[in-house]
Structure formats: C-alpha cells, structure tokens
Amino acid sequence: MKFMAGRPRKAEAEKSKQREVWTTDCRWAEIRHEAKAAGMTISAYLCQRRTDRPISARQGLLIIETLQGIRDRQDHLVDVIDRNGGNAEVLQALLRLERAYDRVVDGLVFR
Q1: Which residues, in sequence order, are CB contacts of 78 under 8 Å at separation 6+?
Q2: Tell me: the pLDDT tens digits for 12-61?
Q3: In CA terms, which of 6, 22, 64, 77 is 20 to 30 Å from 100?
C-alpha cells in the first residue's frame, strides 16, 4: 500500500496559472500599493476587485455586518476620546478603523 505525503493534488481546473496583465507603470504602482494596504497579494487583490459581476446577497450581508462592526467600534473610540481628552493611541486606532472602512467601501460593486 502506497501512502502519499503532503496535500492531495488539485484538479487541473483548480490549478492557478501565470497570467499577463497589461497596464501602465503608474497604474501598476497604484495596484501594488492598494494590494499591500489591503494586506493581500496582487493576484488576490486583482481577483477580488473584479467588476464583471455583482456581489451576492450573502457577500452583501457580510459586508454590511463588517461595516456596522467598524462603525460601532469607531463610535466607541469617539466616546473614549471625549472622556479622555484625545489620547493619541485612541486617535490612531480610530484612523486605522476609518481606513479599513474606506477599503471595504471602495471594494464594493453594486448593480
């Protein structure tokens, strides 16, 4: 009996293949920066940013829940800032949440 080490092989249709992308150097730099800011590889970022189809209802609900969670956290931080006179660490956390909120909203495709 032969035992296989490692993970099972992917079906041919599931294998990733190298692709070429034709874009200007300026736009490529923007894509690279946006992917890094989103904490993603360029490939994952480009796949996520596809605009050829709308988001599903399930994705929409997850996005709404994510955005609501971010807004709730922002509201809490604003209350903390009001009580503590503008703590720098809290302000930085609020800015990070605002950037995260903007990234989620920028990635939406509604049709």
Answers
A1: 94
A2: 777 777 778 788 888 889 889 988 988 888 888 888 776 546 667 887 78
A3: 22
What is residue 23's three-state secondary structure? coil
Torsion angle of C-alpha atoms 107, 17, 10, 52, degrees rounded to 10: 30
First to last CA, the chain: 54
Average pLDDT in the chain: 77
For residue 54, give both structure tokens.
Answer: 């709308």
Spell out where the chain has E strands. none
Indicate the angle between helix axes 88-106 and 57-84, nearest 10 degrees: 160
